[in-house]
Amino acid sequence: MITIQGLRKCFPNGLEVLRGIDLAIGDGEVVSLIGRSGSGKTTLLRCINFLEEYDAGEIRLDGTPLWYRAATGGARTRMPEPAIRALRQQMGIVFQQFNLFPHMTALENVCLGPSFAHKRPEAEVKALAQQLLERVGLGGKMRSYPYQLSGGEQQRVAIARALAMRPKVLLLDEITSALDPELVGEVLEVIRSLVLERMMMVIVTHELRFAREISHRIAYLSRGQITEIGPPGELLDNPQDSTLKEFLRRMP
Amino acid sequence: MRFLNWLAAYGPSYGSGLGWTALIALWASVGAIVWGSVLLLIRLSGRRWVNLAVEGYVQLFRNTPVLLSIYLIYFGFPLIGVVWPAVICGGLALVLQNGAYISEILRGGVKAIDLVQFDAAKSLGLSGWGTFRKVVLPQVLVYALPSLGNQVILLVKDTSLLSAISVAELTMNAKLLTEQTGAAYEAFVVVAVLYLLLVVVLELAARSALRAVRWRPRYDAL
């Protein structure tokens, strides 16, 4: 379970992008973050696995505080780098632009994390990676390089790469936004199967239909705050917040 | 005819010079690429004062003749009690100088790496060193391969400067033959042709290495 309390973040230019976020995500729960661009949803997601630092607030994973340690006098310090790495390995993230390593085959991309992090024998890592690639429907493309794969295939490799860390939570950052419409389905299909396995997920998305279908709860962000949160049916069909009403009216 | 006769008589005696030149060129280029990579790693680690030190080093070697470094090492090291063979001293000078250039070349290659890959590396829990070894260096060496090949060619030609400290490489070889036979023109023409052949071989090797790369970046930089 992940609990986020009072999360605040300012960009160096003074823009306050997160203004006190409170959110708890239970085991096996799927929470989607929606909102206009600039509302802070991607930043929130990237704070969870500390790709972004934050100025105040606390994030816990199963009760353990993450990323910062309390220091004397109410100040805080960053955890040491090895501790940060070890914690990051418990979380998987999939990016909008796939972010695959172009010089590695699909199989090598998936193997890199576990062979580095877990120091397991190579054969074991490879077997796991093969199994994951087969699972996302890419059993026949293990030796392909990213440039030889379609966007949808690259994104499925990226999902397998994240799963190879055996993460407790999967963070998905607009994973279908860079895909051609006809390739969106194959990626969402993989995510559906993860929902069935009760994988905890936080999803930033613009696909409201998909969010409605798979989320247990949807959170609407507006100017760095969660102004409304609830089950998809309630939030999408009977919105209370006026900016959310406006946001939903403009969505196709 | 005179030239052919000369070649038949003295041609084989270039063998050892050619061998030395190839050997020095090999170890000095490998050394320079390794040293350039180390300098790159130091620069990417991003500490300000360390960066300044490396920057200073690069400027120093870029802006002084390599012959000067050769002399300084060969005649200078004994003053601090280090007596190394001339081949090592000369090769070291080539490594230090070309390493400086190569670190600059590699730095250009880093710019070709898609920055988002660093997010991915972080998210997989890779350390800075792990990211450098597994993500940065393999790509940079490929992006920089054409310029790297050029630099190695320059290095190969600069091995001739080692003749100044009496290393028995090709140029020295020709110098000695000139003194023995008095045939300056013949002796140096043969050397020129041999350098040319070495460089052509290198050029072909660099090209086929680039062709052997099976991956492509997201955008076509190769």
Order of helices and strands of chain B: HHHHHHHHHH
The proportion of strand residues of chain A reads 25-35%
Query: What is the level 1 CATH name of chain B?
Result: Mainly Alpha
Radius of gyration of chain B: 21 Å
Q: Give the mean pLDDT of chain B.
A: 88
Q: Characterize the biggest β-sheet of chain B.
A: none
Q: Helical residue percent of chain B? A: over 70%
> What multimeric state do the chains show?
heterodimer
H/I helix tally of chain B: 10
The CATH architecture assignment of chain B turns out to be: Orthogonal Bundle
The outline of chain A comes out as globular
Structural class of chain B: mainly alpha
Overall description:
- The complex is a heterodimer of chains A (252) and B (222).
- Chain A is α/β, with parallel strands linked by helices.
- Helices cover 37% and strands 25% of the residues of chain A.
- Chain A is built from nine helices and twelve strands.
- Chain A has helices spanning 41-48, 81-88, 106-117, 122-135, 151-163, 181-196, 208-214, 232-237, 242-250, and strands at 2-10, 16-25, 30-34, 56-61, 64-65, 68-70, 76-78, 91-94, 169-173, 200-204, 217-222, 225-230.
- In chain A, the strands form three sheets. A six-stranded mixed sheet of chain A has the order 8-9-10-3-11-12, sandwiched between helices. In chain A, strands 2-1-4-5 form a four-stranded antiparallel sheet, with helices on one face. Chain A has a two-stranded antiparallel ribbon with strand order 6-7.
- In chain A, strand 11 and strand 12 (225-230) form a beta hairpin.
- Chain A is globular.
- Chain A starts with a strand and ends with a helix.
- The model of chain A has no long low-confidence stretch (mean pLDDT 89).
- Helix content of chain B is 77%, strand content 0%.
- Chain B contains ten helices and no strands.
- Chain B has helices at 2-10, 15-45, 48-62, 66-76, 86-110, 116-123, 128-143, 145-158, 170-181, 184-212.
- Chains A and B meet through helix 2, strand 8 and helix 3 of A and helix 6 and helix 7 of B.
